[in-house]
Amino acid sequence: MNYWVESSTRDDVDIGMLEESALAMAQSTIQNAINESGISRAEMARRMSCNRSFISRMLAGGHNLTVKTMARSMAACGFEVRFQLVPIEWNWVSSPVSTEDAQPANAGCAPFDFAMAA
Predict the structure, then answer these.
(1) What is the pLDDT of residues 2-50, one digit of tens each?
(2) Distance in angstroms (rounded) separating the CA atoms of residues 77 and 30
(3) Domain ranges in the chain?
(4) Based on the number of CB atoms within 10 Å of its own CB, is 29 exposed (0-12), middle (13-18) or buried (19 or more)?
(5) So what's the architecture of 14-87 in CATH?
(6) How far apart are CA 21 and CA 30, in angstroms?
């Protein structure tokens, strides 16, 4: 996609970051649809007429999602895709957070107990 967007249009835009962010959001949306519908990844694969390994690659980032694949995966869960235009915001570049306002990454979450997970 980098070659489609002229770099001189906005100097502060990282196209690669936008691409990766969009892919991560798509994967997250699909996973949320799976969770909400209560189906397994195996059932999703059956509904999409594909292998279970394809679902794993799609959700792990090993597959560059197309709009058609996104629509099929959402439909398998009983949902549809809707897109929304949002202006690009690079708040972390123009106004860095002061250390006084910063919170740890797990703020508001209980710490993970590795002993319980084993």
Answers:
(1) 444 554 455 667 888 888 888 999 999 999 999 999 999 999 999 999 9
(2) 9
(3) 14-87
(4) middle
(5) Orthogonal Bundle (1.10)
(6) 14
